[in-house]
Amino acid sequence: MASTTNSPSTLLTLPNFSIQTSTFLPKTSQRSIFKKKKPFNFNSKRVVSCKASNGKQNDADTSNFLNRFDRRDILLGLGGGLYGATSLVRDPFALAVVPIEPDLSSCGESTVDTGKTCMNVPCCPPKLKDSKIIDFEPPLGCKIRYRPAAHLVDRDYLYKFESAMERMKALPVDDPRNFMQQANIHCAYCNGAYSQVGFPDQKLEVHYSWLFFPFHRMYLYFFERILGKLIGDPDFAMPFWNWDSPCGMTMPQIYLDPYSPLYDENRNLEHQPDVLVNLNDGKSFVKPKKKDDFYELTKREQIKSNLYVMYQQMVRSSKTASCFHGAAYLGGCASETDIGCTPEPRGGTIENGAHIAVHKFVGAKNPPYNEDMGNFYSAGRDPLFYAHHGNVDRMWNIWKTLPGKKRRDFDENVWLNSSFLFYDENANMVRVKVRDCLDSKTLGYDYQSVDIPWLRSKPTSRRSRLGVGRGQDQGQDVAARRKSKNRRSFPIVLDKVAVRIEIPRPKKPKKKDDEEVLVLQNIQLDRNDSVQFDVSINDDEDDDNPCKPEDAEFVGSFSNLPHGDNCHSEAMLSTNLYLPLSEALEDLKINPFEDSIVVTLVPKEGEVSIGNIKIDYVC
Ligand code: C2O
Fold first, then answer.
1. Peptide bond preceding 383 in cis form (omega within 30 of 0)
2. Integer angstrom CA distances of residue 438 from 386, 517, 617
3. Known catalytic residue: 355?
4. Which of 41, 283, 304, 592 is surrounded by the most beta carbons within 10 Å?
5. Where are the chain's structural domains?
6. Residue 211 buriedness (CB in 10 A; 0-12 / 13-18 / 19+)
7. pLDDT tens digits for 465-514?
8. For the segment 335-380, what is each residue's pLDDT rounded down to a tens digit?
9. Is 389 in the active site?
């Protein structure tokens, strides 16, 4: 924990609005009130579009849009005077359904904050020469360039790639295509350089929401176009770091030569040259070897574990758009998770999982900033960032090909019309909308096809593997044993020891396609702390050997990459975690009528407090 927040009581004070967790987490009595209420009508007077002119568009957006989210949560967020939740909403009239756009004229210094110190970083792009912004047009032509896996490229390719990077680094410093200028794009969109168009007080942030995949896709797209232009090869395709496959689970060799323009000295040297990444928490399997590391893995185990992590994040827990992409982030909402917004922005499975783990793995071990990859403000300065995000982007393509009729991108206009600004390969400023980037082939690129071994890594129940309770209904068994001793009160402070708690399942009947989700609400932490905890359900109570990704009991993790927001805002972050359970419940053969589930929280790094845990049908 950073020094500013070392007592549990500090943890429980929300920034900006002082409110008890119980006020907005409905207890049983309040639930019945919600049920009696008519469904909230977004077109009623409570919500006023900030852009009156496009009111019609908003109507269409919202009805569709609302179907995706739990109406009760929406009531809570918007209910200015309802149910005592008043102080949650800073400005109910700002909560219109409008897309997010960066306000170029607002661009100012970015700030990076450690809780103790505050650093200002200039990250704005060079000024527009003729104040012209071009609307993006997808390239004409049908030739597809294939991005290769970084560990498979040959010498000729490497020579080309290195020359392109060298030239990019050698461009004049004020050329928007210069490497540092490119790196700064990430900093500007993450560390509060821009305000949102129409909302001068709200900063724009491209992480922890449904903007994550589109923003990074287009950021890489232009980066790649610039490289191609610099070597006169418009078909040049950047490599991707194939960390989801056994041969790609170490930092790719081509980035490790200190004399190469692909090298970055701000990395964790202990993880070079051939240490395997741990996709669950970003640590290596070799170090650190501390007592409080819950498990240490051999090389083989680490590879297997990573494949299970991938299956968890890509298959088990990402059956819908909002599970995979993250939740909506609307114009007027504060960056990241804003509990005054409905729904609160929140990251998807891959963003919160393997993506952050790899950032942590590569970033240097020097506090407070863990540059370059370990902090968003500096991540773009490491050439490896672009290969890492290539693979993240590849996951978006793969996700859409997996079976399941809900594995589709959102169709809400408010998402499709959100936009970003980039300088293109000709140094013209271009406005790109999310709708422009849904299909990488339309943009002219795809990924080299390689084996996807994690598709076959479905976890199995630890109890059945160990032969415990075979043939019994596991859910009943475990829940019955714990019923009396697991009544705990919230908030839970999670620091060193595992916590086990019994959570009632919803009484309402489950509709056919509903996903049963474990919702950890109001998780509070210092945004500048590295935090990680694992979550499992109905495990077998072995604290020395908690569930791992290969166990069907393991349902996911929470992790935070330290990221400064604004030095003048609170260091505390309040967020929620959604963990889909349906497939785990099936794998564990838990009776659908079982009325509760035992949840185990295993802290691995840092400290958090958790305001409430419930089970719901959303996501
Ligand atoms: Cu914009 Cu991997 O972060």
1. no
2. 19, 27, 27
3. yes
4. 283
5. 110-456, 474-618
6. buried
7. 776 544 444 444 544 445 444 556 899 999 888 999 999 998 877 777 77
8. 666 666 767 778 899 999 999 999 999 999 887 788 999 988 999 9
9. yes
Residues with CB under 6 A from ligand 1: 186, 190, 207, 216, 355, 359, 376, 379, 389
The conformational region for residue 485 under phi > 0 = left, psi -120 to 50 = alpha, else beta, is alpha
Confirm if 533 and 547 have CB atoms less than 8 A apart. no
Task: Give the CA angle between residues 29, 39, 211 to the nearest 5°.
Answer: 105
User: Does CATH number 3.90.550 belong to domain 474-618?
Assistant: no
**Which segment of 39-53, 541-555, 602-616 scores lowest on mean pLDDT?**
39-53
**How many angstroms is it from 569 CA to the middle of ligand 1?**
21
Instruction: Tell me if 207 is assigned to a ligand binding site.
Output: yes
216 is an active site residue: yes
- Catalytic residue, from 216, 271, 325, 388: name it: 216
Atom of ligand 1 minimally distant from the CA of 190: 1
Conformational region of residue 606, where left means phi above 0, alpha means psi within -120 to 50, and beta covers everything else: left
pLDDT value for 167: 98
Interhelix angle 28-36/71-78, nearest 10 degrees: 100
Render pLDDT for 49-79 as a digit per residue (tens, 0 to 9).
Answer: 222 233 333 434 444 444 444 333 333 333 2
The question of whether 563 is a catalytic residue gets the answer no
At residue 62, the pLDDT reads 46
DSSP code of 347?
Answer: B
Question: Is residue 501 classed as helix, strand or coil in its secondary structure?
Answer: strand
Percent of the chain clearing pLDDT 90 (strictly above): 54
Name the nearest CA neighbour of 520 among 577, 579, 572: 577
